[in-house]
Amino acid sequence: MPQIITNTNDLHIVSKPLPPEEFERVKGQLFGFLWSVEGQHAAGIASVQLGEPVSAFAFWRKPDNDPPFLEFVANPEILERVDAQYKSYEGCMSIPGVRCLVPRYPQLTIRYEGSQDLSVCEDRTWVIYDEDARVFQHEFDHTQGILITDVGIVVPKNIGRNDQCPCRSGRKWKKCCGRDI
Ligand SMILES: [Zn+2]
Ligand SMILES: [Zn+2]
Questions:
Q1: Catalytic residue among 52, 71, 90, 139
Q2: What is the DSSP string of 54-84?
Q3: All domains in the chain, ordered by first residue
Q4: What is the DSSP string of 83-117?
Q5: What is the pLDDT of residues 34-75, one digit of tens each?
Q6: Ligand 1 center to residue 142 CA distance, Å?
Q7: Chain centroid to CA 8: how far?
Q8: Which ligand minimizes its atom distance to the CA of 103?
Q9: 139 an active-site residue?
Q10: How many angstroms does the Cα of residue 171 sit away from the middle of ligand 2?
Q11: How far is the CA of 171 from the centre of ligand 1 (A)?
């Protein structure tokens, strides 16, 4: 089983396109890794985190009326980002013990290759929402060499309501980023 990469220099590499003849091999690695950490509720893993900076990731999709399924994504694009971003906590297997408040869009129009999804349409374009959209943005960022610590704020586990907000606004946590949390 491949080791998870935690070196930020390696994680900040922008991934190269993945050629179709490599899809099955890379998919096998990503799925194998996610199955192996199933109990840890890992929502997704990007290839760069396994030491191979190619534009691919796997994540658990959670459709409204169907059971979750593991999806393989190669060469993703985000075509449209909709509505106001909202902040929520995210962790990352490559940054153990750190949680960040990260702003994400609640709806995306995306395109990618490699899917087994039977609802796949001709142009490989989908609209995804909420948690699926959040995970997709997290993993997509990995393919761009971007980490949650680059786009979110690190929130200490023991933060108190009256503590200074870690976003450095000078305001109290409860009146700033912690307000709706
Ligand atoms: Zn991550
Ligand atoms: Zn703040």
A1: 139
A2: BSEEEEEE--TTS--EEEEEEEEEEEEEES-
A3: 8-156 (3.90.45.10)
A4: S--EEEEE--TTSTT--EEEEE-SEEEEEEE----
A5: 988 876 667 899 999 999 999 999 999 888 888 888 999 999
A6: 7
A7: 16
A8: 2
A9: yes
A10: 7
A11: 29
